[in-house]
Amino acid sequence: MGFFLLFLLFPFVNSLLRPIAPGVSILCNRLTGNYHGVTVMFGRPLENGDSITWNGTIAAYANSANVPDNLKWTLWGTPSLNEAPFHMRQDVPKQTTIWNNFVGKWQYELYGPALFQLGQPYQVTVKMVGNAFQAYTNGVLMYSFPIRSSVAGIMAADFVGAGTTNWIEIQCANPPFTTRSPRPPRPGHGHGGHGGKHHHNSGSSSDESCEH
User: Fold this and answer.
1) Number of domains, the chain
2) Cα distances (Å, whole numbers) of residue 109 to 32, 82, 84, 158, 192
């Protein structure tokens, strides 16, 4: 369903999006691999209480003046993925994180502590709670970015910059309900004491226009 929706919306996707990772979707689970430089689609919109975690390593060298080196994490939303309710950027090795959102243009920047260090592994979690996005590194709350635009339909995320990912994971506050198939009877526990058959189921503003 998610990919069918993406097909319908593709002509309207904004030009700031990275290429869509083909055949990939994440829904309340972990996606293993390096998804640097591509957009990862979600199986359903991010909901209040959900969190997304990126785990990986930052490069040993980066030049803060070189835009491709700047570390950027973005969540894309609204039906046509043309708004970014959440965006964080660290121009490593600078020790400041820039926080922003995109609604037709980049809004005014907010500043917080550094989340990443050159040559070091990282694990950053962004949790949508109430009226804020809470950013954690290794389980420690580092910054709360206020929600400043619609968070409806957050369906994608991307990461670029001087680093890689080992995995991406979404933890859902309310995971989709699934039903488990009945376990087949064990041999010797069928009717009449004879073995039953087994059945197996196989399931700042304008200056930040250079952000992307």
Assistant:
1) 1
2) 32, 19, 13, 19, 73
Tell me the CATH number at 88: 2.60.120.200
Q: In terms of residue numbers, what domain contains 169?
A: 2-179
Please write the tens of the pLDDT for every residue from 111-161. 999 999 999 999 999 999 999 999 999 899 999 999 999 998 999 999 999
Q: For residue 198, is it within any domain? A: no
**In what side-by-side order are the strands of the sheet with 121-129?**
30-32, 163-171, 51-58, 121-129, 132-137, 140-146
